[in-house]
Amino acid sequence: MVQSNDMTETEYLAFKAFLEQRCGILLGEGKHYLVTSRLAKLMRDQGITSLGALLTAIQQVRHTDLHDKVIDAMTTNETSWFRDGSPFTALEKEIIPRLEEKTTSGCRIWSAACSTGQEPYTISMILSEYLTTHAQSRLQRSDIIATDISSRVLDEAKLGIYDDGVLGRGLPTTLKQRYFSAVEQGWAVEDNIKRRIRFKQQNLLDSYASLGHFDVIFCRNVLIYFSAELKADIMNRMAELLNPGGYLVLGASETTLNYSDKFRMIRSPAGVYFQRES
Question: DSSP per residue over 38-64, as a string?
């Protein structure tokens, strides 16, 4: 295992620049141990004995499988069902009913940085719950695009099979019984929940042109790792993807204030979210 004292300051700064340029993550000062601890297994598996050798390998060409593995090792994939609660209450109680009033052909929702799939599956379950009591709803043909930079977590998300420990992190028992089936490896998401979701690899720094337009974007607990300039750029580009009056849902500690003037904040008993100015 490479040790933090084996990493020169020049190497650390070079890796810090690579990470920010490639995926937007902004490492603070003195995070040498974080880098070495997260990269230790990858470097061992690749037979790489120093950060300097790893930097040489990833700088040889612009994009390789090694790039993806490095980024995957450095990104945080912390997630759970109905994480933080209030965004999903707002979706259920306020956003979906408003979309029902104005749509003629369903809605489109983007779950950005979806990790292992809990967020898009949660959104899909909320839609299904709504549709069971609104049989004539115009939201029947709604779609969810779920993206992440990591191909590894996307593979897990697409599979849609979780063990009891994962399901126990926020999933109500009634929804487990309704939308999951027991399989040999654990619990599988039912097809009627999966079929409205399309998973796609997407770096938030890259173009969004292939994604289309949306009525709602969930981008929670990822922009906190980015610089102010990147936050502003991403929020403004997301605003361009939102249909007039569309909604942006951020993490509990995140805001569009000071980053984009294309949104207005909505404070309600259900929570705080943002609406694109028409």
Answer: HHHHHHHHHT--SHHHHHHHHHSSS--
Say what the pTM is: 0.85
Distance (Å, whole) CA 246 – CA 269: 19
Q: How many CB atoms lie within 10 A of CB 195?
A: 10
Rounded distance, CA 218 to CA 216, Å? 7
Contact 162, 187 (CB under 8 A): yes
Alpha-carbon distance 156 to 166, whole Å? 12
- What is the predicted pLDDT for the residue at 2? 43
SS3 23: helix
In the predicted model, what is the mean pLDDT of residues 125-132? 95
At 31, the pLDDT band (50, 70, 90 cuts) reads: confident
CA 75 to chain centroid: 11
| Residue 33 C-alpha from the chain's centroid | 25
pLDDT at 166 over 60: yes
Domains of the chain and any CATH numbers: 4-74 (1.10.155.10), 86-276 (3.40.50.150)
pLDDT > 60? residue 39: yes
The string of pLDDT tens digits covering residues 189-245 is 999 999 999 999 999 999 999 999 999 999 998 898 889 999 999 999 999 999 999
Sequence-distant (6+) residues with CB within 8 A of 146 are 110, 111, 114, 117, 119, 120, 157, 197, 198, 199, 200
Q: How many CA atoms lie within 13 A of 23 on its CB side?
A: 25
What angle in degrees, to the nearest 10, is found between the helix axes of 32-46 and 9-23? 80
Q: Are 110 and 241 in contact (CB under 8 A)?
A: yes
